[in-house]
Design goal:
The structure holds 2 protein chains of 2 kinds. By secondary structure, chain A is mainly beta. Chain A is built from 1 helix and 11 strands, in the order βββββββββαββ. In chain A, strands 2, 4, 5, 6, 9, 10 and 11 form a 7-stranded mixed beta sheet that branches. In chain A, strands 1-3-8-7 form a 4-stranded antiparallel beta sheet, with no helix packed on it. The longest helix of chain A is centred in the last third of the chain and has 4 residues. By secondary structure, chain B is mainly β. Chain B contains no helices and 11 strands. The radius of gyration of chain B is 13 Å and the shape is globular. The chains are: A mainly beta, B mainly beta. At the A-B interface, strand 5 and strand 10 of A face strand 4, strand 5, strand 9 and strand 10 of B.
Chain lengths: 122, 111
């Protein structure tokens, strides 16, 4: 099945520093990847849609200058949390679709998630 | 009204019983529906997806979709302690390609 790899799995950083999270599709190409954030006891909230070779699409209320997304290749998207603050501490998860493996060549195909990155800002 | 609603639980069932998890959604134009399982501290993993009205079975899992009632459910037969997790319902809403998740139902399978 489709494998999405995310790195690092956890990171602790000081307030004001920046943190980069990588998301890779290991056995398929992903023109679109999705970045979610999950606070404790809450559901996944979509932050942005990462598009290969073009600008990311951000959800309402998500600061694009704070959460920088780069999708430079068909298998790699990165999320950089700039000038992190304690309120940015959360579980960040990337996801992608593998149209070929699921046999559904449309946006109806399911998302496969990376293992997530737990960010703690002190 | 939330776009995707689930009872947060916890839902407790004895080992070997059938667990029934429910989800309602508000967008009548929704096309595709997904169930994910999430263990504490881990990312979600896909269990099933369903697009058409009716039932879809995969092993011990059955997804049921009723678009007229805007309702989708997940049945887990012969529940095992390892099934204890939070189950997330996700719906592709609107005309875009993003998924909207419910808050999840916590399932506890007791010995």
């Amino acid at each position: 099945g489709a494998v999405v790899s995310q790195h690092p799995s956890w990171v602790i950083c000081k307030s004001g520093t920046s943190v980069k999270i990588e998301c890779r599709s290991l056995d398929f190409q992903a023109t679109t990847m999705f970045w979610y954030r999950q606070f404790p006891k809450q559901s996944l909230m979509l932050m942005a849609t990462s598009n290969e070779g073009s600008k990311a699409t951000y959800e309402q209320g998500v600061e694009k200058d704070k959460f920088l997304i780069n999708h430079a290749s068909l298998t790699l998207s990165t999320l950089t949390v700039t000038s992190a603050h304690p309120e940015d501490s959360s579980f960040y998860i990337c996801s992608a679709r593998d149209f070929v493996a699921t046999g559904v060549s449309s946006d109806n195909s399911p998302l496969h998630f990376g293992n997530g990155t737990r960010l703690t800002v002190t | 009204q939330k776009e995707v609603e689930q009872n947060s639980g916890p839902l407790s069932v004895p080992e070997g019983a059938i667990a029934s998890l429910n989800c309602t959604y508000s967008d009548r134009g929704s096309q595709s529906f997904f169930w994910y399982r999430q263990y504490s501290g881990k990312s979600p993993e896909l269990i099933m997806f369903i697009y058409s009205n009716g039932d879809k079975e995969d092993g011990r899992f059955t997804a049921q979709l009723n678009k007229a009632s805007q309702y989708v459910s997940l049945l887990i037969r012969d529940s095992q302690p390892s099934d204890s997790a939070t189950y997330l319902c996700a719906v592709r809403t609107g005309g875009g390609n993003k998924l909207t998740f419910g808050t999840g139902t916590q399932l506890k399978v007791e010995l």
